[in-house]
């Protein structure tokens, strides 16, 4: 048995962002020393705003964000135009990409191909081909290994666009999956599969606010919660997973959290 996931708790989002920056920069620096590029998969939802706060305030410390060496992929994306208000890419663009100072350079970003908005299977296949071209051929690589995945946790325990009880959770072959009936709008999406989401070198979750405390308690303190998508990432990736939460999100959670900075 491996070690359990790390749960780091902070009084508020400002303190959380400082430690999240240290965590991301640590992952960036090890990736750059391994292969001169930092490959990261990002979620949408509440994550991009907190991540922007972490990365764009240099006073947070932890070293330099080498954005020009980053390759950004999406852990999940909604099948909408890239400037649509439901687009995860739009959020990342507004909260991070558009705010990067020119001297730090720009990441290479891999958004969905909007040619396939009406065909999510084709969109997922195309996004998988993008991963194949970056991470080498599927014949030689069983699964793409991101240097870091930064994930959110929905109030129902979903992560990426993997929802509780979905048959997609049993997928063992495809890297990227289509969804046409997401319980949370918009219905049409693509998502990394669970094997890909749990295969990263490091996986960071960010969950903030009292609206997350019931699901956090389930995920960390109950057997049923361990079967939810976020719980499955915890049990499959174990100590490679680190959660960054604020105090309101873990009110009542018994699982031991480390409080304060990393
Ligand atoms: O629909 C989605 O929701 C999850 C969780 O969002 P949050 O706002 O509760 O943090 C998000 O991680 C995912 O990327 C998004 O498509």
UniProtKB/TrEMBL annotation:
The pathway this protein participates in, as annotated, is: Carbohydrate degradation; pentose phosphate pathway; D-ribulose 5-phosphate from D-glucose 6-phosphate (oxidative stage): step 2/3
What is this protein identified as? 6-phosphogluconolactonase
Instruction: Tell me one GO molecular function of this protein.
Output: 6-phosphogluconolactonase activity
Q: Please list the residue ranges annotated as the Glucosamine/galactosamine-6-phosphate isomerase domain.
A: 14-243
Q: Which GO terms describe its biological process?
A: carbohydrate metabolic process; pentose-phosphate shunt
Q: Which family does it belong to?
A: Belongs to the glucosamine/galactosamine-6-phosphate isomerase family. 6-phosphogluconolactonase subfamily.
Give, as one word, the top-level EC class. hydrolase
* Superkingdom field: Eukaryota
Q: Which UniProt keywords apply?
A: Hydrolase
> Its biological function?
Hydrolysis of 6-phosphogluconolactone to 6-phosphogluconate.
Which reaction is catalysed here?
Answer: 6-phospho-D-glucono-1,5-lactone + H2O = 6-phospho-D-gluconate + H(+)
**Known InterPro entries for this protein?**
6-phosphogluconolactonase_DevB, 6PGL, Glc/Gal-6P_isomerase, NagB/RpiA_transferase-like
Q: Does the keyword Hydrolase apply?
A: yes
Q: To which species is this protein native? A: Trematosphaeria pertusa
Q: EC annotation?
A: 3.1.1.31
